[in-house]
Hints:
Helix content: 55-70%
Mean pLDDT: 88
Largest sheet: 2 strands, antiparallel
Number of helices: 5
CATH class of the largest domain: Mainly Alpha
Structural class: mainly alpha
CATH architecture of the largest domain: Orthogonal Bundle
Low-confidence stretches: none
Shape: globular
Radius of gyration: 16 Å
Distance between the termini: 33 Å
Strand content: 5-15%
Strand order of the largest sheet: 1-2
CATH superfamily of the largest domain: Winged helix-like DNA-binding domain superfamily/Winged helix DNA-binding domain
Number of domains: 2
Number of strands: 2
Amino acid sequence: MLLTLDLNDPRPLHEQVTGAIRRAVASGLVVPGQRLPPARELAAAIGVNANTVLRALRQLRDEGVLEFRRGRGVSVLASPDGGEVVRRMARELLEEAERYGHGPADVIEIIKELESS
């Protein structure tokens, strides 16, 4: 499972990890029923503390995306709601645009330009 984090992203690391795993599930990279690597392996692969990964996994468990099973590890329970995924991604896009000095109207204009090209 390949996850990457943006070291320039001001969001807390656990939120970035949560988003990366959520995107992997939503995109089908990881499917319902599939087990995730152990938290320590994920942490080592992306270069963060294991507790950071565990915090992200617990958040996704609370959202109903992951399931923890004693002795079996963590597996994907369900894909996130598509509409919710798009809303979350839109929020992230707006936050990123704001960091570069662009507002929602600028983002809408960029999307319209992309749509027409």
